[in-house]
Amino acid sequence: MNCPACSRLLYSRSRRTCGFCGAELPAEMLFSGEGIAAIRAEQVAIEVRRAREKAKEEEEMKERAGEGGRGFEI
Ligand SMILES: [Zn+2]
Question: Per the confidence metrics, is the pTM higher than 0.70?
Fold first, then answer.
């Protein structure tokens, strides 16, 4: 996404104004095309993180269960 006024690359989509020239950015520019793709990519990243955390939790539970099993055998 580039600024419509100065054509420089905008590094932050959360800003409503250009960080270089201060031009106000149209709202539809922030939530269209690349903006939507960025939001979707963020959502996917969050889902992946959650899945990893869940897998880690399950692994820890298995480890605990394994320790308990060994204790029981002794
Ligand atoms: Zn600008």
Answer: no
Q: Number of folded domains in the chain?
A: 1
Within a domain: residue 60?
yes
Tell me the per-residue pLDDT of 8-19, one tens digit each, with 9 for 90 and over: 988 776 778 898
**Residue 40 Cα to ligand 1 middle (Å):** 25
**Does the residue 65 lie in any domain?**
yes
DSSP-assigned states of every residue in the chain = -B-TTT-PBPS-SS-SB-TTT-PBPPHHHHTSTHHHHHHHHHHHHHHHHHHHHHHHHHHHHHHHHHHHHHHHH-
Distance 34 CA to ligand 1 centre (A): 17
